[in-house]
Amino acid sequence: MRAIVNKFGPPLESIQLENSTPEPLSPHQLQLKMKYSSINPSDLITISGAYRSRIQLPFIPGFEGMGIINNCYDTKSSFTIGDRVLPIGSAGSWQTYRNIDEKWCFSIPDYLSDEQAATSYINPMTAWLMLTEQLNITEGMSLVINGATSAIGLMIIRMLNHLGVIPIALVRRDNTESLFENCQLSAIINTQNSTSYQPFHSLKEHGGVDAILDCIGGDQALEQAMLLKINGQFINYGLLSGVPISARFWQERPDVKFSYFHLRQWIHSASKKDIQHKLNEVMKLVHDGIAETKIDKIIPITSLHSAIEEIQNRTVNNNGKILISF
Q1: Which domain of life is it from (predicted)?
Q2: How many CA atoms within 13 Å lie on the side-chain side of 254?
Q3: What is the C-alpha to C-alpha distance for residues 220 and 222, in angstroms, rounded to an integer?
Q4: How far lies 163's CA from each of 139, 140, 159, 184, 300, in Å?
Q5: What confidence tens digit (pLDDT) does each residue in 110-157 have?
Q6: What is 2-119+293-325's CATH superfamily?
Q7: Backbone angles phi and psi of 132, in degrees to 5
């Protein structure tokens, strides 16, 4: 069984399920029997057509999952049949059998469960790479993170704490304290509440902050950039508002050290050795609970449409991931 997209558009309309026969292996390929695959916002955005310039139709969605090697083309492969691997680098995980070049398969340590392994790539690698490869961490730095109650937001906060940083969390509703269990924060500010919003403005009055991690974009990016110290760092890693950052951002804060972080760009420019090294770091953090992902439920691929509909109808974004099983 596999999910296939023949046209871009709303996921519930664009995804079709069909029975399929495993294709013959090409040189340097492994055939994986997929165990689990996750449903991420990046999957649904890709299906909608947002990245159509680099996606060729038809395609099989799914950027994250784990599988077990079922067959190897090359007898000299560094893997053996039965090994658990993490296939990355492209879509294609929403199918029972997946053929993929060995160079895009990565080892999974024995201490991770199948479910942990299947959720150890998109959010954990994005968060860890952004913090260790792009953010300029200094002792005692002040840092603001928006979208703080999202799954990746909470993960980033735990990682920042692990690295010695105690951030300021921006949220959009009251009574979120319980969501930040096991997180150290210097403040929680509700940007939709005028009473608690005052501390937001006072940050600027007290000299500003060193860095901002932004997953929202749009007009909020400019508003929050005004909190930065001169030459402060602003990293955008998402666009939950659906609105690009306007040119006014750079006109009004030309001093800001601005950068985007895209997991895909890092992965496709790094060596396999460097990718495996970072994955090893991330998987240890997953095992230790710092980068672990909450799993809401596991559903068979035959229930994929129902799972996507549930995700799209959620009013909060911290229910946990839904995994597809094969």
Answers
A1: Bacteria
A2: 1
A3: 5
A4: 10, 11, 6, 12, 38
A5: 999 999 999 999 999 999 999 999 999 999 999 999 999 988 999 999
A6: Medium-chain alcohol dehydrogenases, catalytic domain (3.90.180.10)
A7: -95, -20
